[in-house]
Structure formats: structure tokens, C-alpha cells
Description:
The protein is α/β, with parallel strands linked by helices. It has two domains: 5-28 and 269-344, Aspartate Aminotransferase, domain 1, CATH 3.90.1150; 49-266, Type I PLP-dependent aspartate aminotransferase-like (Major domain) (Aspartate Aminotransferase, domain 2, 3-Layer(aba) Sandwich). The protein has eleven helices and twelve strands. It has helices at 29-43, 53-67, 80-88, 105-112, 129-133, 154-162, 209-214, 252-266, 270-287, 305-311, 333-344, and strands at 5-7, 10-12, 74-77, 96-100, 120-124, 138-142, 166-170, 187-191, 203-207, 297-300, 317-319, 322-326. The strands form three sheets. It has a seven-stranded mixed beta sheet, with helices on both faces. It has a three-stranded antiparallel beta sheet with strand order 10-12-11, with helices on one face. Strands 1-2 form a two-stranded antiparallel ribbon. A hairpin with a 2-residue loop joins strand 11 (317-319) and strand 12 (322-326). The chain is globular, with a radius of gyration of 21 Å. The model has no long low-confidence stretch (mean pLDDT 96). GO terms for molecular function: lyase activity. InterPro entries: Aminotrans_V_dom, PyrdxlP-dep_Trfase, PyrdxlP-dep_Trfase_major, PyrdxlP-dep_Trfase_small. Residues 55-292 form the Aminotransferase class V domain. This is Selenocysteine lyase/Cysteine desulfurase.
Amino acid sequence: MRDMRTAFGEQFDVPDGYLNTASIGIPPAAVADAVERAVADWRRGRSSPPDFDADVAAARAGFAALVGVPVERVAIGATVSQLVAQVAVSLPAGSRVVVRAGEFTSVTFPFAAQAARGVVVDEVPAAELADRAAEADLVAVSVVQSADGAVADLAGLRAAQAAGTTVVLDVSQSLGWLDAEIGWADAVVGAGYKWLLSPRGCAWLAVSPSVRERMVAHQAGWYAGDDPWTTVYDLPLRLAPDARAFDVSPVWFAQVGAAAALPWLAGLDRAAVHAHCVGLADALRAELGMAPAGSAIVSLSGPDVGERLAAAGVRSSVRAGAVRVGFHLYNDANDLDRVVRALKR
């Protein structure tokens, strides 16, 4: 049996050379155990739908703590695009949206799909995004880019917000390792199955009061009701008074895992987590003659990079024509050395 790794007080059954967290994170053993227990209860007929409400609440509170907002501002969903769409469909007709060129399409497609209402989406180079955002009604961007790990100019985006632009941030590739203040944004959305070490099927949206006021609950269902267990039948519309009005019915087992993972992540020393993850990534960059980037994600180009890493037992992925590796809590110097040996051989 493979030895378990211990990191930040938890055990991980993660294989050596696993550097693919940007695609799918490996949960702490305690998180996987919680999901397994829930599945076992389901298998044996011991589950009841209200049993999962506590997990939904715990995961919601964990996301709120990680973002730095009151829990009343957080809605749940299953995917980023599903939640971004609720912001996009509530934009006034004719709005202008600015996005970074090469942005992940779960961020951009929901806005582009509003073209019939006159919503215009402009793609601009990353270096121009903050300046161009000040001229738009809304800017939507990943805090850390999926393909290359580039970190957004948060100070510039905050300046655009002060000029009247609504700022939407996707934290799917940053929340869980990046030590940055993001609670100021008008909307913050993130998926759980990468750096938040949760099962696929859970995502969250934190909205400011001003955005909340102009949003319409286009996906309203029973779980968006003021009391989900009494709003399952009949009209009139009885939505929750806070961001729960935008809830989508939860994926139960994903929420069980998130309830175990997010509160733990929120309780960690964020500066220490950042230093660990970025320290390994920038050490790799230094070994390969690259400049430090302050990101846990490293994009590697060159002949046969992917093949050499795979032969060395390194799990990575290919994005935008380059090989992507990422360092999270459970990675260590052995993983770094494995990559360096493979690429310097």
C-alpha cells in the first residue's frame, strides 16, 4: 500500500508526482471518508433529503469565510457557468462586458449568450484589461488563469469598480491557495473540485447587495424558497430573502465532501498555504531559468515536455498548447525534483 502524505494536519492518499490539481484536486482522506459514509448510507436506505441540509450550510459558510463575505451573500450551484449565467441574464439589455482574451469559457459564454439582448462582450489583452474595464458596465475574469496561471491585476480591477464597473471574479483556480483579498468584488464564483478539494458538482456564488438587488432568480426552484421544505408546492413565489434565492438544488454527495473540506481550508494560515504552493512553483521556475510568477500554476513549453513528464510519473495536463502543472498543499520537494529531473535529463 502506498504511504499516505501528511500536509497541514490532514492525510492525503495522493500518488507521487501528482501535479494536476488545476484539473482535479485530491481530497484529504477525511473528506473522501465522509463521502464514502454518505454513499454507504444511501446504499442501505439510511438517507433522508433533509439530512444533507447541514452539509450545504457548512460548505456555504466555508466558502463565505474563504472569500471574506457574510454567509447571507452566498448562493450554491453545481457549476461555475450555471452561477455566472444568473448574473449574465440579469444584465440590462445593451450592456457592455469586457473579458480577458483567452479566458475560460465558463466565464465568458454566459455573457456572450446574451447577444440577442444587445449585450456586447469585448475580449482584450490581459495587460489592457484593468484599463478597458473602467469603460465597461461589467468585467469578468479569472483571478488566476486556467491555462498559464497568470494572476489578474486585482488592484486595477478594484480601481475600475470604483469608476462604476461591476467586477465578477472566478476563483476556481485560486481560492484555496492564493492569499489575496477578494471579498470586495461584486460577484465571486468558484468551483469546488479543484483547489477546494471537493467532489465535482458543487460551486458557489457570492454577490454584493447591489448586484443582489438587480438579479432575477431565473433558475428559481424549490431550494431557492424561503423555507425549502415548505415551498415545494403551490404559488405564490416565496423566495429566500438573501442570496439563497439563487440556490440551485444541491448535489448531495458533492456537498458532503465540501462540508468537510471548505471549513478546514478556511481555518488554515492562508499566508503559509500561499508560501508553500507558490514556493514550490517558483522553485521550479528558477530551476528552469524562468522568472518567478507568484502563482501555483506553471505553464511549460518545449519539445516532448508532456512525454518526459509522463515517463517520470508526473501527472499533468495540456492547456493552450503547453503542459500545465500545479502545486497544492499535498505536494512537496520530491514532486518538484521529479519534474526537474525529467526536464533536465
